[in-house]
Amino acid sequence: MNKARVPWKAVIGGSVGNLVEWYDWFVYSSFAVYFAASFFPEGDDTAKLLNTAAIFAVGFFMRPLGGWLLGRYADRRGRKAALTLTVTLMSASALLIAVAPTYAAAGYFGALVLVVARLLQGLSVGGEYAASATYLTEATPRGRRGFASSFQYVSMTAGQLVGLGLQIILQNTMSTEALNSYGWRIPFVVGAVAAAVVFYLRRSLLETEVYGEEEEEGRAKGTIRQLLAHKKEALLVIALTMGGTVAYYTYTTYLTKYLSISAGLPKETATLVSFCALFIFMCLQPLAGSLSDRIGRRPLLITFGIGSMLGTVPLMTALGGASGFGGALVLSLVGLVIVTGYTSINAVVKAELFPTHVRALGVALPYAIANALFGGTAEYVALWFKRHDIESGYFWYVSACAAVSLVVYLTMRETRDVALSRSEGAQPSDSVAARV
């Protein structure tokens, strides 16, 4: 049994900031059904959602640039500095959305403000993922890294839950007219203020020992040339992310819209289903992360790949016919349990693939590219299939992405026992010691 201690201060400090980052990121999607009409002229509801989904995707296409710039910054200036910068950018973007003028007041200028805000969010999140993944991984001793790094998705999901919880409160305390008029601005104000608070919290974090060792080496850090020396690992990150990110956004950000538009559930019921399913999903992450510390990362990834490839079509088809809260919740949970095999450990797997001097950039840029191509476009692709009356085509698309990633999971090396620091390298891991 591994007796290594988990550095809870570092885990909590990094996670709380990540929570606010992803609250701001996801709240755009969860409140889109209320503000879509505010920024575009009259038209059918699906067309308005397509417009807001397109702007949502714009943020993802900014993530590769954010991954490059902020990943480079994290490798050169440190994980703590990058974490502080990303949350500052996110606070500014949330504030922009909160004060954006409507179409009635300023025409398409309001939509332009939304685009600028999403570009800033994409820049921020593009670096946040890698800075958070590397910080949580490096700050934790070998043998507990899977458990500790799983809190990245705990905090990401908690951020979404806070947004959904606030949405439920507003739905029950404000009229639909008020929400459509001005109520949708409230969560963005909350996000801007919370991010400002977390800025001060992150300033008190300590830099990781692993990064400190790299500073002593005095070598160049975070360059594209150094990343190209690890082309195989970079391509591996893109491929293993492909199926996971599409499945994740399908069962999280798109789920509420799908239950409302396709299954015909009331918005309030669809939101409650998402909230309950995501809460249980959040609680599963540390359990799966801890399991990966015992049995390895690959078994969980392979389980996800098989489950997502074979289960997406029947699950989404059944969800489209769900007629009540109970059935929709059970089916949603099945999908999220499958996705847990990816979400709980994807951060630590990617961080363990690269050496310290290029770890943040190596995680950030390939991951951001994969998200721009597959994660950010998932909702738009789903709505496109629906608008053309071939909604089931999207289910097969998700399955195909999972199949590609499954091939990678089956052929990649195990990363659980990788030593990140000199002290780790001098001692065998628990799994190695057990075999001696």
From TrEMBL:
Read off the CDD domains from this record. MFS_KgtP
Work out whether the entry's keyword set contains Membrane. yes
- A Pfam family (short name) is MFS_1
Query: Which UniProt keywords are given for this protein, alphabetically ordered?
Result: Cell membrane, Membrane, Symport, Transmembrane, Transmembrane helix, Transport
Task: List where the protein spans the membrane.
Answer: 21-40, 52-70, 82-100, 106-130, 151-170, 182-201, 234-251, 271-288, 300-319, 325-349, 361-382, 394-412
The protein depicted here goes by the name: MFS transporter
Localization annotation:
Cell membrane
Location, primary (coarse class): membrane
Q: Where is the Major facilitator superfamily (MFS) profile domain?
A: 10-417
Q: Which domain of life is it from?
A: Bacteria
Membrane topology is: Multi-pass membrane protein
InterPro entries assigned = H+-coupled_symporters, MFS, MFS_dom, MFS_trans_sf, Sugar_transporter_CS
Q: Coiled coil: which residue ranges? A: none
What protein family is recorded? Belongs to the major facilitator superfamily. Metabolite:H+ Symporter (MHS) family (TC 2.A.1.6) family.
